[in-house]
Amino acid sequence: MANILEIKNLTKVYKEAQNEICVLNDVSFSVEEGKFIVFIGPSGSGKTTLLNLIALLDKATSGSIIFKGEDLTKFNENQAAKTRLLDMGFVFQFDALLPEFTVLENILMPALVANKKAKAQARYWLAKFGILQLANKFPPSLSGGEKQRAALARALINKPSVLLADEPTGNLDTQRKEQIFKDFAQTAKEEGTTILMVTHDVHAANYADKCYKIEGGKIQEM
Ligand SMILES: Nc1ncnc2c1ncn2[C@@H]1O[C@H](COP(=O)(O)OP(=O)(O)O)[C@@H](O)[C@H]1O
Ligand SMILES: [Mg+2]
């Protein structure tokens, strides 16, 4: 399988007043298409920084991020926004579903922004994640696990080639965590979506195709 993503000599230094902190120090790795990749590291190890760089929400100090053959670090704001909307999906620790819209409407939101019709696709994901019966409910009436599955469906609605997940289970109990990890692994396997998830939860390693440790500015395969 081809590499969908190649991180080459990526460095991120934050400067604050007199201090400089090197959060990512010359890291390189490649991601094969359709794999579920997990990065495990403690709080403050640079997990969010890594995802923000790939998502083009932050700028690298040096290095390159080759996504489908193009260097994302060279993208302008327009290209970045388009790539984020059409080719990347995002899941965060908190579901960020809009409470005044139904679950189905929430899931359709990114498709609406992209001017795509996706109702059938939304129902497909709802059924796949076992929450089709919740389509017309409002998010505040859902459990934490159900909300995260709805957030996952929303992240996938525009059929992105890569899904970026930042501590998506940080707010869930053990049983619900495992369900989410399984949903991710299944999505990579069956849909061919490449998934990069960062977490401090070592159990995630059991579900991943490949697992990296992120610590002290370095990223190493586990
Ligand atoms: N915008 C910023 N400015 C300065 N320092 C930052 C900024 N964002 C993150 N950091 C620092 O970079 C380090 C890594 O942060 P982060 O990527 O959020 O870690 P994690 O997600 O693993 O908890 C932390 O020490 C944090 O304080
Ligand atoms: Mg973080």
Question: Descriptors for this entry?
Answer:
Rossmann fold, 222 residues, alpha/beta, single chain, 4-stranded antiparallel sheet, binds adenosine-5'-diphosphate, 6 helices, 30% strand, binds magnesium ion, 6-stranded mixed sheet
List strands and helices in order, with pairings.
Blueprint: E1 3-16, E2 19-32, E3 36-40, H1 47-54, E4 62-67, E5 70-71, H2 77-87, E6 88-91, H3 103-113, H4 119-128, H5 144-156, E7 162-166, H6 174-191, E8 194-199, E9 210-215, E10 218-221
Parallel strand pairs: 3-8, 3-9, 6-7, 7-8
Antiparallel strand pairs: 1-2, 1-4, 4-5, 9-10
Helix pairs in contact: 3-5, 5-6
The site of adenosine-5'-diphosphate has 12 residues, from strand 1, strand 2 and helix 1.
Verbal overview:
It is a single chain. The protein has about 220 residues and is of the alpha/beta class. It is built from six helices and ten strands, in the order βββαββαβαααβαβββ. The protein has a single domain (about 40-60, about 75-220), classed as 3-Layer(aba) Sandwich (Rossmann fold), CATH 3.40.50. It has a six-stranded mixed sheet, with helices on both faces. The chain has a four-stranded antiparallel sheet with strand order 2-1-4-5, with helices on one face. Strand 9 (about 210-215) and strand 10 form a beta hairpin. The site of magnesium ion has 3 residues, from helix 1. Adenosine-5'-diphosphate binds next to strand 1, strand 2 and helix 1.
